[in-house]
DNA sequence: AGTTTTGTACTGACCAGTCAGTGCAAATCG
DNA sequence: CGATTTGCACTGACTGGTCAGTACAAAACT
């Protein structure tokens, strides 16, 4: 009954084409923006005929939306994994936050173009994929908010903190620092960057410990 | 010798038109991005003919570049002012950082569209105004870096902090938190948001004080 | 044998930038 | 004084090019 080549869903060939298109689109759109990137360019960089793009995706915007969903899905999974692993090992909530900072850095290190593109589109309004982006953002930030809330409940964090705003600020801290790293001092190591952010996170900038 | 009608520089009329064009362009580009915004739209929103745009600016990109310079100039000045005022009053460097956080929030509160657009374009590569943006960014971040460096020199901050990266992270923290505030909970007061960020800045989230 | 990809050619909407011309107020002229 | 010129600011129809999306027959995969 079962086919020998394990196929879960679509054919492998088609999946490979879609993957190539994602990769081509992500770098081009990160560099130039959505509107300035042409479908011809995407097809060419993917090494594929233009018709193939439209055989695989209903339109340019749909391609982009699926790309967004795909990418943020990876990030969210990675953040969750980091938080859960820390919990399993009996770490504190600060440890969990720190692990998530690292997971964020690893993600950005691996997919800098996606991150760039995500930031560039996130606060736009009046765009077709706005709602998709909103949903997907909530999922990611919610992971951070969850850890903060648990920390408050456990008495590890002050109950005066504003969970939502603090989560956004933490995400912003990592995002901007990492993009800066990649853009302006790419020779530095991930550990190095992580150490700097850890210090800031734990208030060891101003305070003597 | 001197003319009776004291006119310093350009005519008032022209200046007013340029201002209208700036205002129209900033909101449209923040919403849709540079490439997706047409010159016709900008002209229409400014209540001006298309030709007038080209009478006042050499091209669409030039209009945008001057807009960027103009906006970041305002921000930089405001940050400097905050730092200097704190110094004059004999505040600590943490106080100065805090004052700059507030200045940043005030700026974003007043010019949310500009901030949006700035973030969206900052990490793009291969764009015409890339170099302009780079210069202008350095100026703004340099103000924060300056305060951090002085703090280290004065022994107020650990000399192990990475000035450049920490500055970027702080800017990111304020930027993203503020955009989140404006986008998702605009009813909150500036003081409220400032308080949350202050707490984070001073490590009063996790640390017992 | 059905699915996927290719290559080429095409369409029609859209858009940055141009240009000949208008309106108007101050300056110059006769 | 009235008539004419000058220069600035602005206008909006027009042009030349670009690009998303379509069409389709032949080829390549699985």
TrEMBL record, chains A, B:
InterPro entries: Homeodomain-like_sf (IPR009057), HTH-type_TetR-like_transc_reg (IPR050109), HTH_TetR (IPR001647), KstR2_TetR_C (IPR041490), Tet_transcr_reg_TetR-rel_C_sf (IPR036271). Keywords: DNA-binding, Transcription, Transcription regulation. It comes from the Bacteria. GO terms for molecular function: DNA-binding transcription factor activity; transcription cis-regulatory region binding. Residues 38-57 bind DNA. SUPFAM superfamilies: Homeodomain-like, Tetracyclin repressor-like, C-terminal domain. Pfam families: TetR_C_24, TetR_N. Residues 15-75 form the HTH tetR-type domain. This is TetR/AcrR family transcriptional regulator. It comes from Streptomyces misionensis.
């Amino acid at each position: 009954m079962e086919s020998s080549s394990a196929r879960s869903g679509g054919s492998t060939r088609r999946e490979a084409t879609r993957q190539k298109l994602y990769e081509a689109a992500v770098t081009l759109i990160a560099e130039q923006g959505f509107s300035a990137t042409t479908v011809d360019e995407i097809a060419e960089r993917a090494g594929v005929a233009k018709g193939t793009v439209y055989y695989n995706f209903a339109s340019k915007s749909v391609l982009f939306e699926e790309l967004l969903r795909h990418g943020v899905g990876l990030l969210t999974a990675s953040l969750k994994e980091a938080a859960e692993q820390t919990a399993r090992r009996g770490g504190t909530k600060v440890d969990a936050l720190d692990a998530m900072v690292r997971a964020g850095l690893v993600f950005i290190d691996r997919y800098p173009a996606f991150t760039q593109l995500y930031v560039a589109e996130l606060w736009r309004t009046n765009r077709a994929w706005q709602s998709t982006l909103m949903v997907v953002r909530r999922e990611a930030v919610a992971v951070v908010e969850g850890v903060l809330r648990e920390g408050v409940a456990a008495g590890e964090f002050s109950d005066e903190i504003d969970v939502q705003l603090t989560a956004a600020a933490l995400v912003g801290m990592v995002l901007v620092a990492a993009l800066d790293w990649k853009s302006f001092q790419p020779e530095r190591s991930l550990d190095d960057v992580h150490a700097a952010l850890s210090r800031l996170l734990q208030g060891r900038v101003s305070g003597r410990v």
